[in-house]
Amino acid sequence: MKEGIKKRMDELVDLINFHNLMYYVENNPVITDREYDLLFSELAELEAAYPGHRRKDSPIRKVGGEPLDGFKSVDHAIPMLSIDNTYSKEELFAFDERIKKAAGISGGIEYVVELKYDGVAVSVSYNNGLLERGASRGDGRRGDDITVNIKTIRTLPLVIGYKKPIEVRGEIYMRKDDFVRLNAERKKNGLPLFANPRNATAGSLKNLDSATVSSRNLQVFVYQYLGEETCRTHWEALKFMKEAGLPVNPHNAVARNISEVVSFCDSWRTGKSSLPYNIDGLVVKVNSLELRNKLGSTNRAPRWTVAYKFPSEQATTKLLEVKVQVGRTGILTPVAMLDPVELGGTTVSRATLHNFEEISRLSLKVGDRVLIEKGGEVIPKVVKNIPEYRDGSEKEIISPAECPVCGSKVKKYDGEVAVRCPNISCPAQVKERIIHFSSRNAMDIEGLGEKWVSLLVDMGMLSDYGDIYYLHKDKLAGIEGMAEKSASNLIESIIKSRNRPLSRLIFGLGIRHVGSRTSEILAEKFGSLESLSAADMETISSIYEIGPVAAESIKSFFSIEKNMSVIKKLEKAGVKTTGEAEVKKGVRSLEGLSFVITGTLENYTRAGVTELILKNGGRVSGSLSAGTDFLVSGRDPGSKLEKAKKLQVRILGEKELEDMTRGNDGFPERG
Ligand code: IVH
């Protein structure tokens, strides 16, 4: 029995470490958060009950011990230096010239370009394969021993395959979504907010209670290797670290010369907003380690590297007016109209203000001078007002009592910050709903964008998305600005859209809390709009991955008579409201199926069989439930086999699993 437990704990460690890697490093999670949490809590419970079986590389970090009184100081044998900054392509060319001159080379110098993570530098030492020490940069010569805190970083392995002593350096950071969540929670608890993810990271690392640090979900990328292994280039060193299991950023790139460096820098200026974390520029590093040695360092910074910093993403300007927009769900959003100003390469004249509470939080008045910032999102936001500029002429901003579009009295629902227009026939909502229905990820009606929808609603030709299918070519062609050819193209794309997959149609309906992924699940489970609309709460919320809020919202959408009559219109116009198994190219044979593994398999290790299932689109879970599709059972299966039989979960051997992955779908019978 004991042995079985140890085996299970080993399995769990391997599985969780594998999923950590997929989630944090590969950015490609293969199981849901819930399944992950189940594995995690199973292991945590077992470790609590059998601490002797705890493996050194267990992902359950030992957190929550006694808080520390303070951190010990540690010396950096090799100082942690800074990097010189550049802000333009000219300065990058000048840097390249300096290198060439010092090296006596006339051809192109090879560089590695890395993202410059906006976090906190750290040095991590491993000895005998075990994480031994983590230290902060401090003044570059002496830092704090923050080992207990860095051990809470889930992507930083506690054990690596390499046994000789090595030190790696990198940057600890907080993801943008974690930062937003953290601040929201702090706000709720009346705690001071962190200004940005970097401050939140620095603050977290200084925390003396590692349980708090663990809850912050910090991340790390390593970018420097100091050890015995002889690499010829920095690129090789990065590869070596990756192979040792350390989190190396996937966007690192080699540039053959400085011109390539410049184009990388340019592409990241706009590309950076799609990253889940903040970067404040790029770091350009000479690739050849021999050349680096030759170049050496000054007291402050190495000569072989330079940072390219993005142009300032903050600016000040005047708030001219606050306009109110009404969205698809009736939410009134205040938008700041600004005196146009240059920000991060574009001219900005509008910024989002989120909601009216935000306006009072910022104590904004029309006429204020404001600081604006381009954060992770493309749309800039107002960070604060600068009261020193006030001259008394500024005007209060009042939250409107009526919808600016239809004049209905606005409503504020319990527990919501947003102010809403309750009139579902409000032209603003109607327009937004039709635009959403027609958009690329929904029914994809080419040619029916914002401009035409707005016009057609104003002309009374569209009052809901059902009307789209009753538009007449002759009427369209009579509208100013709509040529005959465009009218027939539009009609053609409307007709084409009638056959979109059911999931797109469901998404297009614009049900609150139903995004494209949820729509896919609903389409797959219900197969038709008819059965979805008839489903009761219990059936909907019993679907794995669909939470109670979404279920409630789905039910209430179909209970509104007006919505059902629009759906009738769609059906009558020949819009396909049933699903057919989409024959996608390369459909993975285990897509949508969940597996639990037990016992010893002949030809696979636990990680191997997990990978086989995941690669083919299946999901692997640690514990059996009625929702499990298959139990893959090997030798000495233990209690899982009995449980599976009880739950009527189908049982497979590895051979049958292999058959399934080859597309041979002779699924064995249940029980
Ligand atoms: S290399 C001395 N690579 O930027 C050279 N640093 O402004 C070692 N940083 O202290 C640093 N991303 O904390 C390097 N890809 C990257 C980096 C990076 C962020 C930080 C690091 C350094 C600071 C200098």
The CATH homologous superfamily of the largest domain is called: DNA ligase/mRNA capping enzyme
CATH architecture grouping of the largest domain: 2-Layer Sandwich
As residue ranges, the low-confidence spans are 581-586, 664-671
Number of helices: 24
Present as ligands are: 2-(butylsulfanyl)adenosine
Tell me about the largest β-sheet: 5 strands, mixed
Mean model confidence by pLDDT: 86
Summing up helix and strand content along with how strands pair, one would put the structural category as: alpha+beta
What share of residues is helical? 25-40%
- Please give the radius of gyration in angstroms: 29 Å
Overall number of strands: 20
How much of the sequence lies in strands comes to: 15-25%
How far is the first residue's CA from the last residue's CA?
25 Å
Strand order, sheet with most strands:
2-11-10-3-9
CATH-defined topology of the largest domain: D-amino Acid Aminotransferase, Chain A, domain 1
Shape: globular
Q: What's the quaternary structure here?
A: single chain
At the first level of CATH, the class of the largest domain is Alpha Beta
Q: Give the total of domains.
A: 5
